[in-house]
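User: Show me a protein chain along with its predicted structure.
Assistant: Here is one chain, sequence first, then structure tokens.
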Amino acid sequence: MSQLVFDEKLSLQLEANYSRRDFQRRRRLVEEALSAQSGERILDIGCGPGFYVSALLDVVGPTGMVIGIDISADMVAMATKRCESHHNVAFHQASATKLPGEDSAFDAALAVQVLEFVDDVDAALTELHRALRPGGRLVVWDVDWSTVSWHSDRPDRMSHVLRVWDNHLSHPYLPRTLAPRLTSAGFEGIAFEAHAFTTIEYDDESYAVSILPAIARYVAGQDGITESEAQSWASEQRALGENGRFFFTCLQFSFTATRR
């Protein structure tokens, strides 16, 4: 099985998701944890459609700069368009294990639901350590997908779908090992917070319903799940919502650290 492919269709879906309530809530939490200041140089790893970059540009002001990188050309194109009115921004199609810029070039960096996709997390953290100046701040946000609790009248099918969905990542349970990885990479002052994303309504603004189409699309045709079965799984969730029986929760983790 393979990871998600961030093609144009998925990129457009993610761009739409970033405007929804739960994603806006997450963005506020990340920005609070990063605590960007005027004049700083900030690196956004896996910048996606550029929502974080756009918001950070307003904070760092004309004397600061924000660099966004993403492995997806479609994402880079979206981000570039979103921030085209700013002169103090740049985007690169690059991986988290080969960051642009000289050593100690950035005051702060963020990676929101990115490292869980990276095969060599330790190499990515080493690169982040290189790119940040001594005392530079890092925010890493990832999901432990084992914390998902999602109601279904067919629990065996739900378990199967979620098990297959885990394969869209290199590290579906990354938060469990992230603290020692950060320490080994040369970071200190490591702290973390867990944030619950939960709903009892089939609400388009929720994290659950936002990611549901991507899950159905990914699992279809894998490990015995047919296209019809994937759509039936998604339809059941809609029906549960109509009957007032929808339930979803998961934990997302925000790690903060500074470079020694």
